[in-house]
Each structure stands twice: as C-alpha cells, then as structure tokens.
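Honest question from a wet-lab person: if I give you the sequences of every part of a complex, can you actually get the arrangement of the whole thing, not just the pieces? Trying it with mine:
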Amino acid sequence: MKKIRQILVGMTLIALIGGSFTSCKPKKVGSLMAGDAAQKVYVAPGKFDEFYFFTSGGFSGQLGVYGLPSGRLLKNIPVFSQDPTTGWGYTEESKPMLNTSHGFVPWDDSHHPELSKTNGEDDGRWIFINGNNTPRIARIDLTTFRTAEIIELPNAGGNHASPFCTENTEYVVGNSRFSLPLDGKDDVPIASFKENFKGAATFIKVDPESGRMNVAFQIIVPGFNYDLAHAGKAVSHDWVFFTCYNSEQAHNLLEVNASQNDKDFVMAVNWKKAEELIAQGKGKKIPASYMHNTFDEKTHSATSTQEKEVTILMAEEMPGLVYYIPCPKSPHGCDISPDGRYIVASGKLAATIPVFSFEKLQKAIESKAFEGEVAGIPVLKYDEVLAGEVQQTGLGPLHTEFDDKGFAYTSFFVSSEIVKWDLEKRVVVDRAPTYYSIGHLCVPGGDSRKPSGKYVIALNKITKDRYLPTGPELTQSAQLFDISGDKMTLLLDFPTIGEPHYAQAIAADKIVKNSKKFFKIEDNANPFAAKSEAEAKVVHKGNRVDVYMIAIRSHLNPDNIEGIKMGDEVYFHVTNLEQDWDVPHGFAVKGANNSELLIMPGETATLKWTPDRAGMFPFYCTDFCSALHQEMQGYARVSPASANVPLSFSGGATASESK
Amino acid sequence: MKTTSRNIILLCTLLMIGAFFVPFWKIILEAPQYPEGLEMKIWLYKITGDVDKINGLNHYIGMKLIHEDEFPEFKIMPWALGLLIVFGMFGAVMRKRTLIWAWISALAVAGCIAFYDFYQWLYDYGHNLNPHAAIKVPGMSYQPPMFGYKQLLNFLAGSFPDTGGYFVIAAALGIVGVAVYEQYYSKK
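Yes, you can. This is the full assembly:
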C-alpha cells in the first residue's frame, strides 16, 4: 500500500515537472491573437478602409498604397523605377522624370515615405520619398497619386537620412549615408577618407502652394554615415536631428571597424540659424550639377532642368549651427515625441534606448557643456542632454513611433519584437513578437504632433514560414497590431510589394475629398493632343511620323495607317477623350521595343516606335474599357524605304505630308 | 373674389417664376457600372447633366446624339410659361373668377401639348436608330418612360419632374383649389 502511494506521488511529481517545462516554452502567435481579430480587420465588400497606408517599395523603387485595417493593396505608384504597366519612364512624356546628372537612371531604392505636414500634422497634400542609390527625393501628388517631381541631391551618396520634413513642410531633408568628397573633387584615394569625405545635410525648400522643391542649402558636415533624421516639433520646431554611425570614419570592413566606438552621434542642426546665416550672405555658392524634373498636369509631360550651382555652409565655420550628441552604439532611428520635448535615438547594437531632452539640450548648449570637438564641431556631454535610458528593452532597437496616450513603440530587429514603453517614466509596459526581423514600424500619424492611438504596423524583412512558399524569394510583410488597449494584439499579416522600409498612414478622409477623377480635356495643353475626333491626324515630316490619335469607347482614330517606311520613327500621341471616372484606355503595338501606354481620361501619352521590318503591325487598346473593347484596334503598314506607298489613313483622321 | 384668394394666386404665379431658375424635368439612368446614376436635367431652355456620358453610351445602340440645339421647344417654352404667369397675375389683380378658369384651361392645354411633344421626342429617340449600330436587339426599342421607371437593357431609366416641375404643379394645384373654393364655397 505504501509502495503504491509512493509511486503515485512520484508520478504526480514527474507530471508536474513535465507540465511546468512545457508551460515554460514561450507562447506562439495563436495565443496573442485576439478572438475578434477577424472582425476588427474585416472591411465588408463595397466599404472603405479607414486609413491609407503608404509603404516604401524598397528595392522596387516604388510606393505601395494599402487600405487599413484590411491590408488590401490599392495601388503601386511608380516613382523611381520604370513601370511598363503604366508606361512610367517609357512614354515620351514621363521619360524626363528619371533623368539624373548620370543620365537616365531607370531604378532606385526607395526607403522613407513622408507625408507633408501643416502645423506638425499630416495634411494629405503630398507624400515625399527618397531614392537612396542615386540620391533623389520625389514628391507624389495625392490628388492624382502620381509622382509630380523628382530632384537630385548634389554632393551626396546614399540619400538615406531623408526625406523627413519640418512642421509646415518648410523643408524636406537629405543626407549622405555614404559620405563623399564634394562633386568634381572626388577622384581621390580611399585612404584619404578622413580628410576628404563629407556628409551633406541637404535642405530642400518646398513651395507652400505648388509643392515645388528647390535645394535651398547644404550644410557640409564631417564624413560619417548619416542614417536617419526627424525634424523637431513645437518647442524644438527650429531643429532637425540626424543620427550617424561610423564616427570611426572607417572605409573598409565597416562591419567591424565602424562598430568600435562606444558611442556615435545624434547631430542636431538649427535650421532657423542656417536660414539666418544664408540671409547674412554666409553661404558659399559652388558649382554643382544635378537634375530637377517636374511633371506638368496640363501638358501631361515632364521636363528636366539641369541645376548648375548649390549654396553650402561649412558646419565647422558656423558656430551655433551644428552640435553632436553622443549616442550609444551606431544609432539608427531618430524620432521626436509628439510634443517635441524628447529625442529618441536607437543604437542598433545597444540594449537600452537613450531618450534625450530638448530642454536639457538647450541648457547644455547655453552652458557650453561640451566634452570636446569632432572636426571643429562641439560634442555635448551625454549626461547633460540625456533625459534617461529605457532599460531592459530588447536587442537591436531601430525605430520609434508614438501614440496619443504618451506611449512609444520601438522596433527591435535582432530580438524581432515591438516594445511599448512609457515616454515619461521610460519603463517597458508591453512587448509583442513580430514575424520576423522587424525594421521600421508605423503608427498612423506616428511621427506627427497628432498620432492616432489605434494601430501599430510592423514592417518585417523576413517571412519564412508565414505564407505559402514561392521558391527562394519570399515576400516581405506588414503586421497590424491593435494598440487601443493596454496590450498590443496582433490582428493581421499581409504581404507587401518590394521591401517596406518606413511607411506612413493617414486618415482616409484627408485624401478622399481631394481625389481627382479625370483630367479635363479642355485643359489638356500637350502639344500633340487631339482634343476631339476632328483633331485626329497624321503628320509625316522627313523620317518622323506623328500620329495624333484619339481613343474613346470603342474606337481608335486613325485606325489604319499606311505609308510608314523603314527608317521612320513613329510617335503615337494617344489622347483619351473620355470624361468619366475609371475609363482609362491602353495602347500597344506589335514588336515595339517599348512598354504600353495607359492613358487616363483627358490625358495624352506618347509611344515611340521604330519599326524593325516591313509588314503589318496591329495595335490595340489594352485596358478592357467597354463592351466593344476587342474592336478597338487598327493596323500600321510599314513598307521598305524605297517603296512608293502614299500616306493614307482611315477612321476619319486627316492626313498631311510635308517633306 | 376674396383678398386671400387673390394673394394665393399671386403667390402661386410667383412660385412659377422660380421654374426659370431650376431644372424642370429629369431623366435618370442607373446600371451596375453606374451605381451613382447618370442624370439628364431638362430646363425650360437648356439641357444639363451627364449628357455627354449618356450620348457616349447611346451610340452603341445607335441612338441620335442629344443636343439642345435640336429642340426648338427651348425657344418657345420660356415665353409660354412667361405668358401664363402674366395671365395668372392679371386674373388675380382683376379678381375675375372667369379669368382664373380661363387660365386653368390654358395651363391644361399647354400641359397637354407639352406632354404630347415630349412623347414624340422620346418615341423618336427610342425608335429612330442607326441601322449600323453595334448593339442591335431584335424587336427592342429604347423609348424612355414619360413618367416613372422602365428597364432598357442594362439600364433602368426613370423620368420625373424636377424642382421647376414641382413648382408649376404646386402652383397649378393651388390655383385650381382657389378657383374651386371661389366657385362653390365662397359666400358672396
């Protein structure tokens, strides 16, 4: 009897121990999901999402547009990369948008979307995004969801700390992640890195009415790797903060050599002071060569202008303009609290998050609490600027966004999680795993004065076992968390186009009310537009053939063209005569070494075609527009150069031939 | 005739003046692709609304283009209504019951002519189709309803008075009411 009891007790103990082992194992996503998650993200057919969500396309060079909370993809806006679907970068009208001082560059790496702001709040007028590889900044018009302007940055390499804007979009900024010698003086030995290489904190002025950008000035700063930035708010309105790593100024094996210093820097720049210095004539104009491309909504065409000089301020010669704040271990994200009082920088190799106080920064500057100088620029004492550190966070903090209740949300790449912490108390209050390796994160309005307290979205680099496999290349993803309660709860996973670095979200009603439905045909000022059937024509001059074609449901006019000869260059200028929403027409020609056209109502777009052989070439509408879409077609006849085929057409167009 | 009766008639004629400033009649079209609907607004002297879009769609069935220059009525209707209004005012000021009855008869005749004419146009647009039209449905005509709704292929067509029409209807009812009252109930 005793033995039996002993055995029973023993078995119970083993069961208890075993049970506690299994319960030690951290819980997986299933237990994190709220029971009503599906309900919270379900947007019924025909209903609209509450937020627009703009994700950088990363190595796709574009800008994704999704709806939240559903995660439904609405559009992929072509920005820095050619897009054969829309003809972006292929049509004669849009090609100049991708011009740079290096010529036509058909791709870039887009990282950070930034909504334009008024009084520190997202205003829904434009969204900016940086091109990292060939340093550029684009402005996308949110009435048309099209790229309206792209400006190149001189003296810069790797425009990563960009395009964050000041509170009234006075400026958008850029800076070099790959410091370079000034343009034109850059054929130097790499060993002269410390001596010759510089960062270029670029301030691009944005016209408050038109949005037009211009490089106002560049502050030439020590050659570190400038990583991210954010402008101050309210009390810190006059300042922009940049993080930088590689204060070692290593130029090889950065993985090791740029990770030696215990602290790198947050660079504080007083842009109001810079404006004063420029007004006093302290700026120096130097020759430069960079492209400025704008897209005109009336002519539906882009023009490239080559800019020839830029104004610079040498940071070390301008006391009071730039200060360095020491920051642990290769800081990455640089985020400012909604009230502008705190600067949160994240050392990506650190385990704590330093929070700097703007008030203490001002006092430290006033009392000259410097620990020394770097390349002529004062370095403030860490403790004199620090408000406090958030301890026991995670590993590899990257970026921080804020909500409306005084909490901050920081992404941790290495430990793959979001950590929620109290901004004033600087203590961790919650954490949620992400799947996997989160980079940026986004709270709607999370970098503005008025964040929303509804969601945080994780932007993940690795998805491994999260979706059906698609061969070696897998999608990146976004994960939506509900942050309205005390605990973050995972609601939804959805794949994204390209790699989403940063993303921003905005209440839909700020954009919907201004959304354009079509372009008025009477406002079309494209020199090759045919604004009615009567204006359709073909002009043959020398070896150039201009086809002024119209498209309307359900025909193209002219629809047959004969008399084109080998050696001719044919330009199809197609005008969509429709004046109704959601009736684009497409256009494509057999064998053209080119993309299609996708022409919005009221717009003109041009396809250049150089026939490669004599013969018959069908062309047609590629966007299923109407019941008789399949009938929207025609032929172009190409004859040998020596042939004697006269120019002729059908479809009602008029021909003209001039030698 | 009582002063109140006279004032009501004057008020009614004033209401009819309002018909010059707002659409008189409307034809509405709804289809799966047009959940927001297309509308054609007929005024006394012009047509507004989605006329271009409607013409664009009608070309598939070979209907003639709708264009306001086609209608001589737009030159006549403002005068006709103007005349009625002046006549009504005259009757009220003269306080003559017989004049009011004459006015009502004139309005009835004008109304009948207008509706007959409207029907003729609707018949013409609906039946006089281009024989080379892309969409031809044997035995199908596309005459829109004169009043109410009617399904025409994928479109539900509706025909109703617009604000101006309601002004005139309300005014006519008001004046008929006064005439009946004066005729049968008013104590001399």
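Two things worth pointing out. The interface with chain A takes residues 52-53, 56, 60, 134-135 of chain B (CB under 8 Å). The helical segments of chain B are 3-17, 51-58, 73-94, 97-127, 163-184.
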